[in-house]
Amino acid sequence: QDYFTDENRVLKKDPQQDYHLEYAMENSTHTILAFSRELHTCDTNDKSITESTVRVIWAYHHKDMGEAGQNYHGSNRGTKSLRLLNPEKEEVSSASLPYFDLTNKDVPVPDKDTTYWCQMFKIPVQHEKHHVTKVEPLIQKGHENLVHHILLYQCSSNLNDSVLDYGHECYHPNMPDSFLTCETVIFAWAIGGEGFTYPPHVGLSIGTASDPQFVLMEVHYDNPSYTEGLVDNSGLRLIYTPVLRKYDAGVIEAGLWVSLFHNIPPGMPEFVSEGHCTLECLEEALGAERPAGIHVFAVLLHAHLAGRAIRMRHFHNGVEQKLLAYDDEFDFNFQEFQYLKEERTILPGDNLITECHYSTVDRIRMTWVRK
């Protein structure tokens, strides 16, 4: 049956029944219900289902619902953020493929709110070109809320193995100079995300002279409770294959540059910031190297606790195209790549605008935007 609830959490039967049972099965251990609903029901008691994040809330009781109504679920309840309309990724079995891990070794996480830890790694020697087909997060058990995001940067190929001996806090006055050579992001993961599988025709190139030999892994630790004595060994697993795909993958970063000039006043129910990747920027970035443009197949929208919605806008010849990606119900704890239903071509001279919506209605101090 189709029920709805109000601010008092009282369940009420909806006079407009929009949910339809398609299939039901019950045995001694499981009850399975499959149901359908229109994405937009024109019922004020229903939420429209879009490509944004949907918070699915579930609850159950071991007894069936009687004439008197539902039984109280007690502790049999939970919630999960999902993108119901995100297209299924084609999962190619990687069980037999080789892989290598880039993981921190006993990093002492300071008892402070935010720490960025950087560690240099060397890509295992490949004597010919290979393609990375999947990247999986290796988050230490129990640290799922501590590790907020991981970035992988390509570094200068002129470095030597001495840079591998130590990690250091990123963006620190005393950090090694070698870290400054690592500017190009080649992979990104954020909290709540699962492994990222490249499409069957695309892979991240390793093993050639122009591919990364040294990479810097930046891990953002989020420790708002200032817990002491935390030691972390999280990182990434890269699965690769000698069977080459048609195209090499890359990363284009767009958005708001982290700076002291970007801040949000307290008590704001809605505050919008825009990051502009201008036509001059994309002309310079793509004009000589990629005159036919680049093809976007996935987007990772990233923000922090004040983030409420993110929209990636795309302009061609001054005319706005369909949104490249958006999430109007952003969930800080569920940041996962959105696979585009159709690849989008971005050409030299196009514009990209990253539109970030924030709420600081529950804050009394200025919010400084961070990475």
TrEMBL record:
InterPro entries attached to this UniProt entry: Cu2_ascorb_mOase-like_C (IPR014784), Cu2_ascorb_mOase_N (IPR000323), Cu2_ascorb_mOase_N_sf (IPR036939), Cu2_monoox_C (IPR024548), DBH-like (IPR000945), DOH_DOMON (IPR045266), DOMON_domain (IPR005018), PHM/PNGase_F_dom_sf (IPR008977)
UniProt feature coiled coil, ranges: none
Keywords for this protein: Copper, Disulfide bond, Endoplasmic reticulum, Glycoprotein, Membrane, Metal-binding, Monooxygenase, Oxidoreductase, Signal, Transmembrane, Transmembrane helix
Transmembrane helix in keyword set: yes
GO biological process, one term: dopamine catabolic process
Membrane topology: Single-pass type I membrane protein
Record PROSITE patterns: DOMON (PS50836)
Cellular component, GO annotation: endoplasmic reticulum membrane; extracellular space; secretory granule membrane
Keyword Nucleus: no
One term of GO molecular function: copper ion binding
Family statement drawn from the similarity comment of this UniProt entry: Belongs to the copper type II ascorbate-dependent monooxygenase family.
Stated name of the protein: MOXD1 protein
Species the sequence originates in: Sula dactylatra
